[in-house]
Design a protein that fits this description.
By secondary structure, the chain is mostly helical. It is built from four helices and no strands. It has one domain. Helix 1 packs parallel to helix 4 and helix 3 crosses helix 4.
Amino acid sequence: MHDGEVESVLIKALLMAGIGVVALLFVRGHATARHQALRRVAVVGFVGLAIASLLFPQTWQSAASVLGVGRGTDLLLYATIIAFLGFMVSSHLRTRDLQRQVTVLSRRLALDEAAARAAAQLADEHAAAAQAAALAARATTTAAAQLASPPAAAAPAAPVAPTAPALRAVPAPRSVSAG
């Protein structure tokens, strides 16, 4: 193998390892505190590399020659592709977790609302039964009071104004049949 071929194999191995790490993150998930800590370290590292790239642009060219890439911009492009894949996987996993949380919360809310409706319906039925019992008790009390008390003396009737005599219906005469 020539020196250029070894360097070419090195960059290919590094790129495949980066893609493998991204794929592993995708399969494994990210709900742990360890993953969040690694993500923060990666962000700090990225910021450090960005500042170093601005201050020392020739660093990418030197790293590219060590790794067997023609130019520093190509190496930067490869690194950007790996970072973008990592971002896509991380965003997908976060979205999936949020969808699960929304599903759980929606189900919980539906169950709580159903329980509240059932409790309100039960309370309405209980109130209606209590009202019916109160009416029945009042009717029983009134009937018992009427039976227990002597009939009241008839009050003198108020004078009634004379009215026209009522007309009586007179039956029609029956015909007598000869027979």
